[in-house]
């Protein structure tokens, strides 16, 4: 058995190293650039379609994260998705006619809410509703729209040529 | 017919062992609050299980991280997204590889030491001698070893993860030239605090499971040379299997 002093020193070293590692994991690896402070406030926004937006997704203005999506529910009265945004207290002067859009970060990235500032003098207050919204772009809708548009163009073009065989009768 | 009876017998033995282990765990739980006050023996056991495992944990962490860096780089370059190497290694280390590999190493390094020590105490009648002197061997011998393992395990997991990340950084950034800024910033933007929490919770649970199995097997070893050997083997095997089963359950719970 080694002397108790050696044991104490190496145990202390081990425990310190362990806690240093935990500290490193918490501060250096995780996303701590943005942590919500207690003076944050909530905004609400109703979307027709939120695509793949998830609670915890960032809310950004000009690419800077200013908040998080706190909660997503379906509003049975409006028949829309009700998204609750939690905005950090530092950003308390966002014009109250700003609009919210759901975008996708990169090609494979997750979806986020982008706020673009309006021109109003008044700022958003806690519990305010974001009036101007733009829904998530759903790839399937785009494709089907494109397909139907081209089909419609064809059928527009078709009547012009259709009378020709009819005239032969 | 005899086969059926044998199967029934072995099933009953299995149930008996589970029951005994549960009783043993309950006994430990009851005396834990009082045992926590006796700091000295716990420190000694943290040294035994934790500080002495440090070298092997750090070496293995480094190499696991380096392999992740190598494999991840090879896979991610196919999609032209090497900058996600940091994210990929950090998440796989934090959530899975860190806790699981540390638990397996812990069972091999510290668990066997605990089981062999307790088994030898049993075989050389030291435990019986304590009982004769009205010293409770559960309090005196078993509990500090169990608590030491439980305390050491999450710390070992954290050290493993951090060393592994630097291993991945070594391979990805230094050898293959992934941009060091994007390596760390991509990691930072997509690793959540909940990933760290998941890793630490797994570390604590695996620590409890592996330490419990080690002290149980050692304490209840047959008092022969063969019995001690068998207890050591069983410690490693059961710890490994239980760790992997628990890992699935915990992952399913926390996903």
Describe the 3D structure:
The complex is a heterodimer of chains A (169) and B (255). With 169 residues, chain A is an alpha/beta fold. Chain A folds into 2 domains: 30 residues; 102 residues, no CATH class. Chain A has 3 helices and 8 strands; from the N terminus they run αββββββββαα. Chain A has an 8-stranded mixed sheet, with no helix packed on it. The radius of gyration of chain A is 27 Å and the shape is elongated. Chain B has 255 residues and is mainly alpha-helical. Chain B has one domain. In chain B, helix 1 packs across helix 6 and helix 3 packs parallel to helix 6. The termini of chain B are far apart. The chains are: A alpha/beta (169), B mainly alpha (255). Chains A and B meet through helix 1 of A and helix 2, helix 6, helix 7 and helix 8 of B.
Cα radius of gyration of chain B in angstroms: 21 Å
Q: Indicate the mean pLDDT of chain A.
A: 80
Number of continuous helical runs of chain B: 9
The DSSP helix count of chain A reads 3
> Could you say how many structural domains of chain A there are in total?
2
Query: Structural class, judged by helices and strands of chain A?
Result: alpha/beta
Strand order of the largest sheet of chain A: 7-1-4-3-2-6-5-8
Quick rundown:
Chain A is of the alpha/beta class and 169 residues long. Chain A has three helices and eight strands.
Structural features:
heterodimer, A: about 170 residues, alpha/beta, 2 domains, eight-stranded mixed beta sheet, 3 helices, about 35% helix, elongated, B: about 260 residues, mainly alpha
């Amino acid at each position: 058995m080694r002397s108790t002093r050696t044991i104490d020193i190496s145990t202390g070293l081990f425990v310190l190293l362990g806690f240093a590692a935990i500290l490193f994991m918490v501060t250096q690896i995780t996303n701590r650039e943005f942590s919500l402070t207690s003076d944050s406030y909530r905004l609400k926004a109703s979307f027709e379609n939120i695509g793949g937006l998830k609670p915890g997704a960032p809310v950004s203005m000009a690419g800077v994260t200013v908040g998080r999506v706190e909660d997503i529910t379906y509003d049975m009265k409006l028949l829309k998705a009700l998204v609750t945004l939690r905005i950090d207290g530092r950003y308390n002067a966002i014009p109250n006619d700003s609009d919210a859009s759901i975008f996708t970060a990169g090609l494979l990235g997750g979806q986020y809410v982008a706020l673009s500032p309006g021109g109003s003098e008044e700022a958003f207050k806690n519990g305010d509703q974001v009036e101007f919204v733009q829904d998530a772009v759903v790839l399937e809708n785009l494709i089907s729209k494109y397909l139907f548009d081209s089909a419609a163009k064809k059928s527009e073009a078709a009547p012009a040529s259709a009378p020709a065989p009819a005239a032969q009768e | 017919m005899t086969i059926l009876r044998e199967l029934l017998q072995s099933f009953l033995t299995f149930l008996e062992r589970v029951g005994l282990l549960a009783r043993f765990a309950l006994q430990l739980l009851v005396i834990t609050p009082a045992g926590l006050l006796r700091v000295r023996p716990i420190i000694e056991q943290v040294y035994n299980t934790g500080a002495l495992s440090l070298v092997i944990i750090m070496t293995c962490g480094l190499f696991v991280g380096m392999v992740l860096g190598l494999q991840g780089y090879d896979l991610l370059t196919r999609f032209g997204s090497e900058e996600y190497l940091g994210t990929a290694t950090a998440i796989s280390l934090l959530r899975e590889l860190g806790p699981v590999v540390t638990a397996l190493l812990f069972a091999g390094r510290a668990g066997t030491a605990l089981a062999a020590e307790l088994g030898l105490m049993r075989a050389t009648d030291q435990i019986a001698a304590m009982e004769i002197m009205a010293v409770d061997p559960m309090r005196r011998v078993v509990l500090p070893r169990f608590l030491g393992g439980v305390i050491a395990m999450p710390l070992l997991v954290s050290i493993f993860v951090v060393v592994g990340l630097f291993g991945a950084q070594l391979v990805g950034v230094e050898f293959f030239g992934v941009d060091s800024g994007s390596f760390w910033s991509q990691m930072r933007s997509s690793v959540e605090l909940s990933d760290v929490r998941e890793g630490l919770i797994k570390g604590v649970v695996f620590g409890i499971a592996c330490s419990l199995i080690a002290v149980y097997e050692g304490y209840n070893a047959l008092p022969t040379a063969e019995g001690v050997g068998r207890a050591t083997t069983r410690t490693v095997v059961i710890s490994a299997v239980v760790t992997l089963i628990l890992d699935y359950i915990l992952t399913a719970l926390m996903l």
